[in-house]
Design the sequence.
């Protein structure tokens, strides 16, 4: 038998049938098409996230302000997730830390005495089966977005949870609520943004209710797969996943127009005239 290798797949050619088409034999090196597709999709999103690194959170919001269609009378939020403070790897806004940009995975906490919400069904994909801990469902390569009930004083993220997420490969955590154990969180170098801090553990008031469901972050809905853009200087923006390509297409045009405006203003032109000349409608 004569074996010919073609793109990591082995073909068998029978000498007694020279015109017969090669019969496909899967070798141990064969890569199923589903894996190739997932790898291609992964490469594609990685390229888009790398492109986003060139811009600021303000640039992203400028694009979303143009792109998002809102009901009449609704205030435009342009993806801005307000009033978050970085607590790790350093505390406070600064320009020395890198941007953290990744798809969202989500956890919804509820008051500890509430029933588990319907959104936690089916339990194997949105809930927490018996004998498991919520943090063990954290997804590598994502920014975990935690929604905590309003007006609670406990923390829903502490040092042990942060270490576990770091080990699992989580890129960062955005807590719409409180965190604690700042020394431990800083030691593990997991990027963490939150609304505030506490000394009290989550068991005092909260419990995990659901995962991989849309969550409310200060009036902005964040769904699993949306892109979370944590800018250490400017703040945090959520990009709806269905608008990512449009944001990437529009931002360079908006930035280029503003660059021309800044040059003109620095050379003495009035802002009104610079806007009129260089800010075209898009």
Sequence:
């Amino acid at each position: 038998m004569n074996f010919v290798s073609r793109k990591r797949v082995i073909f068998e050619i029978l000498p007694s049938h020279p015109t017969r088409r090669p019969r496909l034999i899967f070798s141990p090196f064969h890569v199923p098409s589903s894996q190739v597709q997932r790898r291609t999709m992964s490469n594609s999103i990685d390229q888009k996230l790398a492109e986003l690194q060139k811009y600021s959170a303000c640039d992203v919001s400028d694009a979303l302000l143009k792109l998002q269609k809102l009901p009449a009378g609704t205030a435009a939020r342009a993806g801005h997730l307000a009033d978050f403070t970085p607590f790790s790897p350093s505390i406070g806004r600064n320009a020395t830390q890198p941007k953290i940009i990744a798809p969202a995975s989500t956890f919804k906490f509820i008051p500890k005495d509430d029933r588990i919400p319907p959104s936690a069904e089916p339990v194997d994909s949105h809930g927490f089966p018996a004998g498991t801990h919520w943090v063990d469902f954290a997804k590598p390569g994502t920014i975990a977005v935690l929604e905590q009930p309003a007006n609670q004083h406990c923390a829903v993220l502490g040092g042990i949870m942060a270490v576990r997420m770091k080990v699992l490969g989580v890129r960062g955590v955005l807590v719409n609520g409180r965190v604690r154990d700042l020394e431990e969180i800083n030691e593990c170098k997991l990027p963490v943004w939150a609304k505030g801090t506490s000394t009290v553990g989550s068991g005092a008031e909260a419990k995990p209710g659901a995962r991989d469901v849309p969550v409310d972050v200060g009036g902005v809905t964040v769904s699993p797969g949306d892109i979370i853009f944590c800018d250490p200087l400017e703040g945090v923006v959520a990009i709806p996943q269905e608008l990512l390509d449009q944001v990437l297409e529009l931002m360079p045009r908006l930035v280029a127009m503003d660059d021309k405006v800044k040059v003109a203003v620095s050379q003495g032109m009035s802002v009104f005239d610079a806007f009129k000349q260089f800010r075209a409608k898009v």
About this structure: DSSP finds seven helices and 14 strands in the chain. Residues 244-266 form the longest helix (23 residues). The CA atoms of residues 93 and 233 lie 5 Å apart. The radius of gyration is 24 Å.
